[in-house]
Amino acid sequence: MTLLDAAAGRERPIELQHLDHWFGEGETAKQVLIDINLTVHAGEILILTGPSGSGKTTLLTMLGGLRAAQSGSLKVLGEELLHADNDALTRLRRQAGFIFQAHNLLPYLTAQENVRFGLEVSPTWLGRGRAAMDDCAASMLGQVGLAERQHYYPEKLSGGQKQRVAIARALAPSPRLLLADEPTAALDKTTGRDVVDLFRQLADDNGAAIVMVTHDNKILDIADRIVTLEGGQLVAG
Ligand SMILES: Nc1ncnc2c1ncn2[C@@H]1O[C@H](COP(=O)(O)OP(=O)(O)OP(=O)(O)O)[C@@H](O)[C@H]1O
Predict the structure, then answer these.
(1) 45 - beta bridge partners?
(2) To 10 degrees, the CA torsion angle through 60, 9, 205, 199?
(3) Domain assignments of the chain as residue spans, ordered by start
(4) 54, 70, 234: which to mutate for ligand 1, most atoms within 8 A of CB?
(5) Which member of 44, 77, 179, 192 has the greatest number of CB atoms within 10 A?
(6) What interface predicted TM-score (ipTM) does this complex get?
(7) Residues in the chain with pLDDT < 50?
(8) Going by CA atoms, what residue is nearest to atom 13 of ligand 1?
């Protein structure tokens, strides 16, 4: 169950309160997130921006359950991640879509098989047959302009094409939470626009909450809200 915002009547898939994070221990510990308070509603696209080293990637990985929370409260898709066990973190990861810069495509699978893999591990696709998954994977690759390359292995694809496969893999299961780190960095202007239009569609049609780190000025208009991290603190939004 996700929490309902009584005032706005909207779900809040992400709710952070007084979140702190440190790297290292003892005297060498360095605080990289300081008292973060942030709510993201269903259907909302939030852009996270800020200078290098300000903590954007750290925050994004914590939202996806890829890094343990140490202090404060971090509720994502209804799960409290502070002191969460591995089962809870795995449950969250399976419901979220991730687009990170190191595409993490499986090299021995074709583009289409990589996208299908994203469906196979998604709880919402449990029990669906192989043909339905193949159709969805092909359609998603078509939407990111890779219809002609669906049977290529990653090593035969350019950086931007690999990025688009990773985007198709993340979007195919229609996740309720999408986390993206510079998703348009390797893409030309038109393809970048097509990709963020797909994000908008996911937010509008599925009520997905989307958090995207980007410095790409060409796509900032897709955001419902832009927040800035500086030195580990949220300074705007
Ligand atoms: N695994 C780690 N161990 C120790 N320090 C780390 C680790 N990962 C990140 N840091 C430090 O934490 C701070 C925040 O890093 P983070 O990668 O979250 O910043 P960022 O805003 O995403 O930067 P960029 O825009 O350059 O990707 C930086 O000072 C970084 O050096």
Answers:
(1) 210
(2) -20
(3) 14-236
(4) 54
(5) 179
(6) 0.96
(7) 1-2, 5-7
(8) 53
